[in-house]
Amino acid sequence: MRRYGGLDVLRFVAAIMVVLWHFGAYAAAAPAEGATGANRAFPLIGDTIWFGWVGVEVFFLLSGFVIAATAQGAHPITFLKRRAIRVFPALWVCAIISFVARLAWGEPVDALANYLVRSAVLSPWGPYIDGVVWTIEREQEAGREADRQIHAD
User: Fold this and answer.
1) For residue 32, how far is the Cα from the chain centroid?
2) How far is CA 71 from CA 2, 89, 129, 132, in A?
3) CA 145, CA 94: separation in Å to the nearest integer?
4) Is residue 50 a contact partner of residue 25, using CB atoms and an 8 Å limit?
5) Integer Cα distance of 18 and 12 in angstroms
6) pLDDT tens digit sequence for 108-136
7) What is the pTM (predicted TM-score) of this model?
8) Cβ distance 123 to 137 under 8 Å?
9) What values do phi and psi take at 88, rounded to 5?
10) Residue 140 and residue 58: Cα distance in Å, rounded?
């Protein structure tokens, strides 16, 4: 597949927008709903990053393009293997870290084990061990759909 360096930069910028937007959402709710000025968490970013939600849309749009481009000309099994090799190892490491952190925080092991398994296999139904796993599951679904569309002939 041809490398699109500019897309990597745009995806990075979109990801940073999302992170800042989450910080802003947290700032609006902490330490108390409706806090203002110096009483807000992250007072320097405050209301200045309201546009961060656009990063989610941009990131998914670009990811869809990249996934479809990697599927182009590949056998479906080869494409799925490459996606699994790219996604699952990092997912498993992060899921285990989240599991251990939540366990150390005192959450019940039986519920966490269920969330860990759902995350590890990218179940289409949450809840997941970490709140961001849904994005990976949606990306995988988009990849499967791209593969179906490309190889429908």
Assistant:
1) 27
2) 12, 20, 29, 24
3) 26
4) no
5) 10
6) 999 999 999 999 998 888 888 887 787 77
7) 0.66
8) yes
9) -65, -45
10) 17
